[in-house]
Amino acid sequence: MSTPIDLSTLDAPRIRAAIAAGEFTAREAAQAGLERIEALDGAVHAFNQVTPDLAFAAADRIDALVAGGAGADELPPLAGVPVAFKDNMNLIGTNTTCSSRILENYQSVYDCTAVARMLDAGAVPLGKLNMDEFAFGSSTENSAFGPTHNPWDTDRVPGGSSGGSAAAVSAGMAAITLGSDTGGSIRQPGALCGVVAMKPTYGRVSRYGCVAFASSLDQIGPFSKTVEETALALNAICGKDSMDATSVTRPAEDFTEGLNDGVKGMRIAIVRDMLEMEGVAPEVKASTLAMAEKYAAMGAEVGEVDLPSAQYGLSAYYIIGPAEASSNLARFDGIRYGHRVKDAEDVIDLYMRSRAEGFGPESIRRIMLGTYALSAGYYDAYYGQAQKARTIIIRDFERAFADYDVLLTPTTPTTAFKIGEKSADPLSMYLSDIYTIPVNLAGICGLSIPVGLGADSGLPIGLQLMGTHFAESTILRAARALEADLKFDTTPPVVRNLGA
Ligand code: GLN
Fold it and tell me: Do 172 and 8 touch, CB atoms closer than 8 A?
């Protein structure tokens, strides 16, 4: 091979085809990915851990298939594609830290199902990605290992909590990454980093082996530069898993099928009242309206709906999410996992001090909020109310989806903010997820697609496409139509500056 492989110009199908055709080997592709991480991750800090041994072992298995005569039809669908995983997903041979001191030295003893399915599809694992501690946050500043930087402007946040997953794809350090989304943690960083990012329907993807945040909301999903790669990743990770009782049995679907069929006759609505919410940047609002016009020009039936209860989403989420998190985090007690103080006086002292030392400030805030909301005297006032709000939000969506196939909002109210700008004010940080949270509360699917750079900020803007339960192929098709029309250049400055 004479020229180095530039992964940022190659999508997953092209990488696989080039390996099948013998243009380069999977090992060379893995090497190119690792070199790119070496060159860029000092500035971006997307990775908590880089895994060359795992990468080469996986790549060599693909190269052995090619050497044995396997052609394009026989190789697995993601053969040789460099990928990486949010650091709350277990992978044997790595630490799974959740970017927390309490799990800093925790070594995976089994594989997360979604991770295993990516590897079974032939993907090559380059490492584990930075995140907000235990996925609590919208900026990746809550990582115990320092923030991730946005490749579009390294003084800015990549969004969160899957900031590492979004930044790694944006900077071309991996073709596909996985993240987890409890209230927006896939779509929000996807929007801020200018990549495609999807939260599948609740139950589509097994969460087995992904450290739980809020079990009634959590869902694993992919990041990539193109809609087609997101569809390919979904093909790999979806489906029933006997290890996760919430994963659903559905007939197998190929999400790439019909991807280019366009939106003629599709019923698409702007969520008008959510667009009028306070705090939405004018450039963001304008771009959402412009995209609705584009859909109309492409032949979709475009209308407007209201989701009047969506305004309660944030409040309901910040009761339900922390309530479930406080329960899920009870297992980190210094006995069974992670950090343990050395000189404990008794078992209570050991629990209390191990947790106080191991958890960062946002995790402690969530545990306190959650245990308070669940305490006997307040249960009806907070948790009970939040569950009722969740129900009326679900009904709003049901009404909207009776008339429309796809609903549109911005993914985030603003483009990427400066590192440090919101970290002292948790409430303003929580507002970053105002558009994404209702989707998790209703358990439906949502996707963020980059639609351009803001006229004022010069930074990526994401459009959120929402579909009803199991309507992934519909929102993928709508996203693909826009992608083909817009031809947004996903290459961020940190890559251009490298001359890569
Ligand atoms: N930003 C939201 C939170 O802090 C959502 C996080 C997530 O989806 N994991 O809880």
Answer: yes
Give the atom of ligand 1 at the shortest distance from the alpha carbon of 182: 8
Which pLDDT tens digit goes with each residue over 42-81?
Answer: 999 999 999 999 999 999 999 999 999 999 999 999 999 9
Please report, as a single letter, which amino acid is at residue 27. Answer: R
Planar angle of CA 12, 490, 236, nearest 5 degrees: 30
Strand order across the 82-86 sheet: 47-50, 124-129, 82-86, 176-181, 219-224, 196-199, 445-453, 460-467, 406-410, 267-271, 301-305
Mean pLDDT of the 292-316 span: 97
Residue range(s) defining the domain that contains residue 336: 315-382
The three-state secondary structure class of 301 is: strand
Cα dihedral value 166, 437, 275, 450, nearest 10: 20
**Are 167 and 212 members of one domain?**
yes
Contacts of 179 (CB under 8 A, 6+ apart): 86, 129, 131, 161, 162, 165, 166, 185, 186, 189, 197, 220, 221, 222, 223
Same domain, 284 and 377: no
Which residue in this structure is represented by tokens 């950090």?
A: 339
Most ligand 1 atoms within 8 A of CB, residue of 132, 161, 326, 364 to mutate: 161
What are the pLDDT digits (tens) for 142-177?
A: 999 999 999 999 999 999 999 999 999 999 999 999
pLDDT classification of 289: cutoffs 50, 70, 90: very high
Catalytic positions are: 86, 161, 185
Residue 1 belongs to some domain of the structure: no
Using CA of residue 370, residue 372, residue 377, residue 380, what is the dihedral sign? negative
- Name residue 447's beta-bridge partners: 198, 465
For residue 181 and ligand 1, the question of a CB distance below 6 A is answered with yes
Q: Among residues 360, 382, 404, which one ends one of the domains? A: 382
350, 437: one domain: no
In a domain, 481, yes or no: yes
Query: Does 339 lie in the same domain as 310?
Result: no
Strands 47-50 and 301-305: unpaired
The model's pTM is 0.97
| Residues 271 and 349 occupy one common structural domain | no
Q: Which atom of ligand 1 is nearest to the CA of 440?
A: 8
CA 103 – ligand 1 centroid, Å: 19
Distance 98 CA to ligand 1 centre (A): 13
Same domain, 376 and 387: no
Domain assignment present for 484:
yes
Cα–Cα distance measured from residue 350 to residue 268, given in angstroms and rounded to the nearest whole number = 55
Which residue's CA is the nearest one to ligand 1's atom 4?
Answer: 137
Give yes or no: residues 34 and 23 share one domain.
Answer: yes
Q: Which of 225, 292, 226, 306 is nearest to 263 (CA)?
A: 292
Q: What is the CATH number of the domain that holds 102?
A: 3.90.1300.10
As a whole number of angstroms, the distance between CA 132 and CA 367 comes to 15
Q: How far apart are CA 146 and CA 188, in angstroms?
A: 19
